[in-house]
Amino acid sequence: MTRIISGSAGGRRLRTPSGDRTRPTSDRVREALFSALEARDLVDGGHVMDLYAGSGALGLEAASRGASSVLLVESHRGTVGVIRANIDEVGVGGARVQAATVQSVLQQPAGLAYDVVLADPPYDLPESEMSEVLELLLSRDWLSPEAVVVVERSSRSPEPTWPEGMVCEDRKAYGETVLWFARPWAPDYQI
Predict the structure, then answer these.
(1) What's the CA gap between 66 and 120, in Å, rounded?
(2) Would you tell me how many other CB atoms lie within 10 Å of the CB of residue 99?
(3) Transmembrane ranges (predicted)?
(4) Domain at 2-18+25-184: CATH code
(5) Domain range annotation of the chain
(6) Percent of the chain whose pLDDT exceeds 70
(7) Which of 191, 180, 37 has its CA nearest to residue 119?
């Protein structure tokens, strides 16, 4: 069972797509992820983008915890329907789903600079595609100056190839899951 962990919709259950199209992030990993983001004061009042949204659990968790806006990007039509149902069920404002590939969304001009970008692609997504996504986030001004990009991958996957202008800040492992935290680089940036 996938559910919202905390915030205004804490405890609400989420639908998950049928079959093996998605791999929901475990409650333990989501709690650790949001604890790290909240410690940086990035969620409450922030703008969050959930790429490869699946059930929408990550983005809806952010909305439940007070994000001003959440954009959930998912390309599979059936899964988009599940996300829409979850948005309605959870009942938090500011969340919307865009039915498109991640690359096609990110190739458009950014209408908003996001404070948090959550990228939880299928484990079999080639590293070259993940690199392209990271480059598009940076080159198309999708990120606020203090943004954090979190990439969730299998522990068997290599570290993402960070584009010039983005620096990896941290890596946290939880069994089979690894979270990579990165941010735009600035001349006064210090780890």
Answers:
(1) 21
(2) 16
(3) none
(4) 3.40.50.150
(5) 2-18+25-184
(6) 95
(7) 180
Residue pLDDT, tens place only, 108-166: 999 899 999 999 998 889 999 999 999 999 999 999 999 999 999 999 999 999 999 99
- What the block records as the tokens of 97 is 């789903």
Element (H, E) at 58: helix 57-64
Q: For the purposes of burial, counting CB atoms within 10 Å of the CB of 90, is it exposed (0-12), middle (13-18) or buried (19 or more)?
A: buried
Token pair, residue 13, equals 């259950």
- What are the distances in angstroms from CA 54 to CA 31, 140, 171? 18, 24, 23
Q: What contacts 24+ positions apart, CB below 8 Å, involve 140-143?
A: 140/106, 140/107, 140/108, 140/109, 140/110, 141/109, 141/110, 141/113, 142/49, 142/106, 142/110, 142/113, 142/114, 142/117, 143/113, 143/114, 143/117, 143/184
Query: Taking residues 45-59, what's their average pLDDT?
Result: 97
Whole-prediction pTM value? 0.93
> What is the C-alpha separation between 12 and 21, in angstroms, rounded?
22
